[in-house]
Write a structure and sequence with these properties.
Blueprint (H helix, E strand, L loop, with lengths): L3 H14 L2 E4 L13 E4 L1 E8 L12 E2 L11 E5 L4 H5 L6 E4 H7 L3 H10 L2 E5 L3 H7 L2 H4 L3 E5 L8 H5 L1 E2 L1 E2 L5 E9 L5 H22 L7 E7 L8 E5 L20 H16 L4 H8 L13 H13 L8 H6 L3
Parallel strand pairs: 5-6, 5-7, 7-8
Antiparallel strand pairs: 1-2, 3-11, 3-12, 4-9, 10-11, 12-13
Helix pairs in contact: 1-8
């Protein structure tokens, strides 16, 4: 179960050891003598495994109540050339790329990676995301956040884009969902609390929106700085119990008193040696008592072994021992 203390501890480590990046407001001139605000890039991602296949190749994007990336981030769009003019009417996009442009100019891997590093967020229509994987490949998808939306791009506001979360790698058995990158100021104490409240709100909202919650979540990671290959901080490495919400405490189940009394009686009788082999076999065939493993009776077998080694095995030997003993 993901604990609140573990989430706060991971965010604290991310703030203390994350890589600082100076960023300025969009449109501001870069002045070497101006005081710049240093931010940490804290990347929160969720990976979900063994999700049952859906009839649609891509699940619908999820709209969260709070933004997943800071408001000052740059946004670029990758669209087909047929809708470039209509998307260009939306002022929220800093640049617009087309699939035909990438193919026509034959951008190399390094060129596509420079494009990915030039902007903090890429947006594309949901039906063209497989084409983005084919044209852009890992150079774009793995170096930035790609959000695909089902609405027309020329109608989206900046707040809608920053609050949209999409699945990544939908064709495979492993699906991940990147919740975004959170900025952190130089004060670690106030930063951790701000990040903690934002991350907790995001995870709680995502857990409430997805049908069944995050019960299929196998690993929740907080990356210190994804663009600089910093190590990730795992928060959870095993499956959640079925129908369990991510921040709810685990339900406490009390064992039946009748079953407990039977188990104690069985263990006591086994310790006294009054349970024979037939009774043990009949008891262990019952699936209700499979957790009671048979014990080795060292008090009966060990003395016979020592006697045989000393040459005194004929004394006190029974017919059963003669049948089992190897000569």
């Amino acid at each position: 179960m993901i604990s609140v203390s573990r989430l706060r501890q991971a965010l604290h480590l991310a703030v203390l050891h994350g890589q600082k990046h100076p960023i300025t407001a969009p449109g501001a001139k870069n002045d070497l003598f101006a005081e710049q605000q240093h931010l940490f890039y804290v990347h929160l991602s969720i990976r979900m495994h063994n999700i049952t296949p859906t009839p649609h190749p891509l699940p619908k994007p999820v709209r969260l109540p709070c933004p997943t990336v800071p408001a000052g981030y740059t946004i670029a769009a990758i669209v087909p050339e047929a809708i470039k003019d209509s998307v260009a009417e939306n002022p929220v996009f800093d640049h617009i790329y087309t699939f035909e442009e990438i193919v026509r100019n034959r951008y190399t891997f390094e060129a596509r990676r420079r494009i990915a590093h030039a902007y903090d967020l890429f947006v594309c229509p949901v039906e063209t995301y497989p084409r983005l994987l084919k044209v852009g490949g890992d150079s774009i998808v793995k170096h930035t956040i790609v959000t695909y939306v089902s609405e027309p791009l020329h109608t989206l506001s900046r707040n809608d884009i920053l609050r949209t979360v999409s699945f990544i790698d939908p064709p495979g058995a492993m699906r991940s969902m990147r919740l975004g990158m959170f900025g952190a100021v130089d004060d670690p104490n106030s930063t951790v609390e701000n990040l903690f409240e934002n991350a907790k709100e995001l995870i709680g909202a995502l857990d409430a929106i997805i049908p069944g919650g995050l019960r299929n979540c196998q690993c929740l990671l907080i990356d210190l700085a994804p663009k600089n290959k910093f190590p990730s901080l795992p928060l959870y490495n095993s499956y959640l119990p079925p129908n369990t919400r991510i921040f709810d405490p685990a339900p406490v189940t009390t064992r039946d008193l009748y079953d407990t009394a039977i188990d104690e009686l069985y263990l006591e009788m086994e310790g006294l040696g009054v349970v024979d082999d037939e009774a043990l076999d009949a008891l262990h065939q019952n699936p209700k008592y499979k957790h009671l493993a048979p014990r080795k009776r060292s008090d009966e077998e060990q003395p016979d072994t020592h006697k045989e080694e000393d040459g005194e095995g004929s004394e006190g030997s029974s017919d059963d021992d003669d049948g089992v003993r190897k000569t």
